[in-house]
């Protein structure tokens, strides 16, 4: 059916269909919407995409996404440096910050251990985590990896590395459904999961 579209429109649809959650029909709707949009709106979208790709980088401290060398969370000196929450992805930081119940800092692993997908510990930001913990300020590490096989595996693996450092390791309670992602959990569920965390 692609031959029905002019080549430039077909190219746009092909690029849009690569986005997560966008099927061929949605891609066509978005493409036609962009064609009808004002030039300023279409150019604004293109500029925003390029700017985000050029400016957003990993925080040099925690691995969160930021426009600066150090993200806003790490730059906030009012937070509790004794608490460190470990998450799989930067989007999980946003989910946890929305609940407004955690006052410590974060560490983003950028994935989870998944042998089936060829992701071992060496592919995650584990070494920087251990280096942060060796500085001696952290008293408790809260594992907030996703409640699925990969998240549990990652959590247990990290707990074995961290406990010899004399640091308390806890895991958020399973108020978050098993097999779910933190990104989709509501604030009340996350708050309950945090309040019910237990030692690993």
What does it look like?
The protein is an alpha/beta fold and 200 residues long. It has two domains: 2-55, Helicase, Ruva Protein, domain 3 (Orthogonal Bundle), CATH 1.10.8.420; 77-199, Dna Topoisomerase Vi A Subunit, Chain: A, domain 2 (3-Layer(aba) Sandwich). Helix content is 43%, strand content 12%. The protein has eight helices and seven strands, in the order αααββαβαβαβαβαβ. The chain has helices at residues 7-16, 24-36, 39-55, 72-75, 90-99, 126-134, 149-162, 187-195, and strands at 57-58, 65-66, 83-87, 105-108, 140-143, 168-171, 198-199. Strands 4-3-5-6-7 form a five-stranded mixed sheet. It has a two-stranded antiparallel sheet with strand order 1-2. Helix 5 packs across helix 8 (187-195). It is elongated. The model has no long low-confidence stretch (mean pLDDT 91).
**CATH architecture classification name of the largest domain:** 3-Layer(aba) Sandwich
- What structural class do the secondary elements suggest? alpha/beta
State the distance separating the first and last CA atoms.
Answer: 54 Å
Helix content: 40-55%
How are the secondary structure elements laid out?
Layout: H1 7-16, H2 24-36, H3 39-55, E1 57-58, E2 65-66, H4 72-75, E3 83-87, H5 90-99, E4 105-108, H6 126-134, E5 140-143, H7 149-162, E6 168-171, H8 187-195, E7 198-199
Parallel strand pairs: 3-4, 3-5, 5-6
Antiparallel strand pairs: 1-2, 6-7
Helix pairs in contact: 1-2, 5-8
């Amino acid at each position: 059916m692609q031959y029905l579209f002019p080549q430039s429109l077909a190219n746009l649809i092909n690029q849009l269909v690569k986005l997560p959650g966008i099927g061929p029909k949605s891609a066509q709707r978005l493409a036609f919407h962009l064609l009808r949009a004002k030039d300023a709106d279409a150019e604004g979208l293109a500029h925003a995409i390029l700017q985000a790709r050029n400016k957003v980088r990993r925080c040099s401290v925690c691995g969160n996404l930021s426009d600066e060398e150090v993200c806003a969370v790490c730059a906030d000196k009012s937070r509790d440096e004794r608490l460190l929450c470990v998450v799989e992805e930067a989007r999980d930081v946003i989910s946890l910050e929305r609940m407004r119940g955690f006052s410590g800092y974060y560490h983003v692993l950028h994935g989870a251990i998944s042998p089936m997908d060829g992701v071992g510990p060496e592919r995650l930001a584990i070494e920087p985590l251990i280096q942060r913990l060796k500085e001696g300020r952290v008293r408790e590490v809260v594992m907030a990896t996703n409640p699925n096989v990969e998240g549990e595996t990652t959590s247990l693996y990290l707990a074995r590395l961290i406990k010899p450092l004399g640091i308390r390791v806890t895991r958020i309670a399973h108020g978050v459904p098993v097999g779910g992602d933190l990104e989709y959990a509501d604030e009340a569920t996350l708050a309950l999961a945090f309040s019910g965390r237990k030692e690993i």
